[in-house]
Write a structure and sequence with these properties.
eleven-stranded mixed beta sheet, 10 helices, 20% helix, three-stranded antiparallel beta sheet, alpha+beta, 466 residues
Length: 466
Amino acid sequence: MKLILVVAVSLCCCCTSQWLVGAEDQPAAAGADDVPVGHKMKLGSHRPMEGRVETLDVLPHPIEFYEQYSVGSKPAIFKGAAKDMPAFKLWTDKYMKEHYSGEVVAVEPGKKENRTRVALEGSQMGFGEFLDKYNTSDVYMVDSVPNSMKAEYMMLKPILCGGFTNFFSMSNMWFSSGGTKSVLHNDDADNINCVLSGSKEFFMAHKDYETQLPFSPAGHVEMDVDAVDLIKIPEMKPVKWWLAEVEAGDCLFIPHYWLHQVRSTGRNLAVNIWWHFFRNFNYTDCMTKEVGDDGEKTRKELPQYASFSSFSMHEGESHRKMFVEMLYPWGAKKPKKMNKKSFIKAVTTGFAEGERPTRAEFEELKDAAVELFDLGNKNGDKYLDLEELYSIDANLFVELFGEPKGGYSIETLTGESEGDDRRAAADDLEEVEDDDGGDEAEADGDSLDIVLDDGLSQEGQPRDEL
């Protein structure tokens, strides 16, 4: 049996309409009854937008993209970046029906997303059948890009060196007749969403708001995005937001955990590529061996695109991300390293909510943690550090913990258990308690293959000396 760790990834970017409030739809000022501004109006009416997401006319080099946008957690629109892709020019209904009708694709019901809806959950149909129906039915397609179509879709220059391709975890193709509306949610991976047909509008808010809003277990804020109840959800009132208007041929970078709600207009076709944020950016991979007149190494010249068919998705990166965040939480200045006992406890207590494990399942999870630690601790110092964690093959995470689709956490064992077997698993947790002191230590940042807040590169050298 493969144990399955929950990966709380809400992956809806399928969906775009006007965010700016029209004259007839202006939010009224609070009156005697203290009705909040924007109450029962569409999302974004509670306050004026802070501004528009930055638009770039030239694709940045991967070093610039990593430092300023990925590490900097800054969204950006790459204007017209998809217009030279074969997919942008070829993927008409007629062309796709002629070439890809035999593909089987997943479809979802209801263009206004409702994550409690299950009527068509798991439904599939032939791509040709979907193309015949999507203009006259309330369904849309959301599925990974079929292998047969990958050669016509391109990866953009900003992610072609430095290690991005090693962390690709998922692709999604979103296809509808327009008018779709997503829930307000966030994703735990960075992603680039390229619109190939139609347009999308994104309500976007900084990831810090995640801790201030009432997120559901399904990874979204439960609300009617066309009539937000600000009395029921007063936490929305102070949320500052930005607007991203993404037209056909544009691509939007969405940093991990940024909140967004998406609306689509017109025949709407888009592709997302997700990768998990990583801290071991490979500067050498992006540099030539030549030295410029200023005595510094020069950056590699890169193509604007590379075919999707040249790259693979790595399911295990979803698991690795959870371990990385355990050693290097967002906002920390330096990573930690863990000994085996504290690592086992973290693995068996700290991941996600789900069904309570039996004692046998608990033991299997503990054994998997021990095996992962022993394989990762290559220097034999009895601590697992970030560099060692990144050295583990992504496939091993899947082998040990199963595909990242769902599962349980020992945290759910607090309170009443459902049987002796499950109570025994809770009791076993007491045996994994930390000793006093020594279980965790801050790693020596200069020795790790990471980029630290103090300006060190992956080699522990200042970036300006590369």
